[in-house]
Amino acid sequence: MNKNYLREQLKKYPGFYGRNGKFYQSLDGVVSEDEARRPTTERLTKYGVLDVINKDTDILDIGCNAGFISLTAAKKAKSVLGLESEPELTNIANGAKSIVNHGHEETDEKQKMDRKFYLLKRKRKPNGM
Length: 129
Hints:
Blueprint: H1 3-12, H2 14-17, E1 18-19, E2 22-25, E3 36-38, H3 40-46, E4 58-62, H4 68-73, E5 79-83, H5 87-100, E6 115-117
Parallel strand pairs: 2-3, 4-5, 4-6
Antiparallel strand pairs: 1-2
């Protein structure tokens, strides 16, 4: 899988993934800040998220969307488990993970998490988008 995969998904699922031809967030080394509406690392720094993550931290990201926050946090964390209810976004997140791969193993979903972040509360519109 390559970086063009994510751009193809942006065109395929614009309501979930981005607007105005841009990704919702950036992903270091994959989606530049010019291609995104919000710089992920800057956003996580602003909210102090990166300050509480270290190599001993297990993270549960509920509603992980396309996984860009999870993948950014994974650079510093012991493990990250991203949960997403939309199958299209799960596929995109798994694609992004295969491009970025920080060397993390698959996580046992029953393990205790040290930090839980839910940065975006998303309401579904009547048409599902």
